[in-house]
Amino acid sequence: MDNDLMVSKTGTIERCIKRARDEYEKDPTTFVGDITRQDAATLNVIRAWEAAVEMGDYVLAHYGLGTPRDEREVISLLEQGGWIDPALGEDLKRTGEFCRAEWDYQAAPLPALVTIIKRGLDDFDAYASALLGRAAGTPEPAAPPPTTGNSAL
Questions:
Q1: Burial class for 89, CB neighbours closer than 10 Å (0-12, 13-18, 19+)
Q2: Distance from C-alpha of 34 to C-alpha of 134, rounded to nearest angstrom
């Protein structure tokens, strides 16, 4: 497994978490009225989600755990494979719903953003740690047998 990719995505997640928190914690009392800070926080939540999904896609492909149809299924397949705790998976899927609303140009409710910043950002850290930890302790998948080119029809 390419640990560099996993570490890089983890770094992206950490930077995005910090930035989203920083925007909110500058002054929580004025966050509601400051669209620029809300946009910056939202963008960083979305970036963290995207990095988490990319990290999960990589694990799924590398270990042959299935092909997801969408971002939610990335999380579901990781849950089913025992890579992440189901409760963590459900929390992440709710954050993904927030991101999906933003991607679809629907105004996601501000209380959802504040909740994610206050309680949901730690889920990204737990997720990245779980994937890195499990990857470190999981043997590499067996390579497929070589083909000789003389296959019978």
A1: buried
A2: 40
